[in-house]
Design brief:
The structure is a single chain. The protein contains 2 helices and no strands. By secondary structure, the chain is an all-alpha fold.
Length: about 100
């Protein structure tokens, strides 16, 4: 039979220091995970905004095509005004995003 190996337990101060280091690391990981969640939410919102904008443009394009096909000048002017507002709104959003 082999000899028994004596294992020396670390003292309380070493265990306490290790626990504090683990707690500190967990806090850092939690902070990083919160940043990741915020970035994912922002990306999700950006995708939703882009999809909504694409749908709006699709509707405007259909209305413009209808106005051209029917020769409806009033509808053409209305669509043009909506397109102008859409472009201005996108420019304002880009400017606001650049400032933040």
């Amino acid at each position: 039979m082999g000899d028994l190996v004596h294992f020396r337990h670390p003292d309380v101060s070493t265990l306490t220091a290790n626990c504090m280091a683990i707690r500190s690391n967990m806090a850092v990981v939690t902070d990083h995970l919160q940043l990741v969640v915020e970035a994912l939410r922002a990306a999700e919102q950006a995708v939703a905004d882009a999809l909504e904008e694409a749908a709006d443009r699709r509707v405007l394009r259909q209305r413009a095509e209808h106005a051209l096909d029917s020769g409806d000048i009033a509808l053409m002017e209305e669509v043009r005004a909506e397109l102008d507002l859409s472009v201005k709104a996108r420019l304002r959003l880009r400017a606001a995003a650049a400032l933040s």
